[in-house]
Amino acid sequence: QLVESGGGSVQAGGTLRLSCAASGLTDSDRCMGWFRQAPGKEREWVAALDEEDTWYAGSVRGRFTLSKDNAANTLYLLMNSLKPEDTAMYFCAAHRSNTLCSGNGRSILYRDNHRGQGTQVTVS
Predict the structure, then answer these.
(1) Strand residues in 23-118 grouped as ranges (E)
(2) What pLDDT, in 10s, does the model give residues 37-91?
(3) Count of C-beta atoms within a 10 Å radius of residue 111
(4) What's the distance, Cα to Cα, between the start and end of the chain in Å?
(5) Distance from C-alpha of 82 to C-alpha of 10, rounded to nearest angstrom
(6) Rounded-to-10 torsion of CA 37, 54, 117, 59
């Protein structure tokens, strides 16, 4: 139900926009977001939103912008000023139920959430 796209390889300072097509998840207030995982590292929460608020990890705040097109059922992550440390597999996630985020958006990390297959971002 979640399909990511838009990853790729860019030079430091470049821009990528990730997309997450969320078929069957049409409610606008459901918590959705992104986390990432680099090889050998733990999952890292990146950003999340619901109809009331948007949250960002400190490492990406000011560089990444999370948005959602409810009509298209698509979540976007615009990533500017990319750094080598942003290199990771990026996963889109959404609550299984129509609920707002909790834990300042970190609830998208819960392992029982919907999750996509991921899209690779490499910054050199």
Answers:
(1) 32-37, 44-49, 54-56, 64-69, 74-79, 88-94, 114-115
(2) 999 999 999 999 999 999 999 999 999 999 999 889 999 999 999 999 999 999 9
(3) 7
(4) 31
(5) 8
(6) -20
